[in-house]
Design a protein that fits this description.
By secondary structure, the chain is mainly beta. Helix content is 5%, strand content 42%. The protein has a nine-stranded mixed sheet with strand order 2-1-3-4-9-5-6-7-8, with no helix packed on it. The longest helix has 7 residues. It is globular, with a radius of gyration of 14 Å.
Length: 134
Amino acid sequence: VPEVRVAASAGGGAHLEQEADGTDWYFDAGWLRYELRAAPRDLRIISIDGDSMEPVLCSGDKVMIDLSRTAPSPPGIFVLHDGIGLIAKQIELVPNSEPARLLIRSESPRYENYERTLDEVNIVGRVIWFARRL
């Protein structure tokens, strides 16, 4: 799985498919397929930068993103471009919203929740795994 040299919440306009410049991570193919239910070709690893998702994700954590999972249902942690930058956030569809809206949440209470229409964001993929230095 290629590590991509961009950091979620660190800058705008990055495209994970085009920025591969890191090292490759090696995982058992069966574990990826059966435990994570993911195809290796759809996976990228990036770093988290910032504290808005603490304590779930911390600055310096590595996250694995499944680029094939871009539907915001069920809710979860996704990497997306919100018009300002590439971020990792909890997102969920706002029920009965027209046009469809997303609630974008940080885990840290120091950051405000906000909403965007589905058309205003580019969901890059769902975070399916992470690693943290102890």
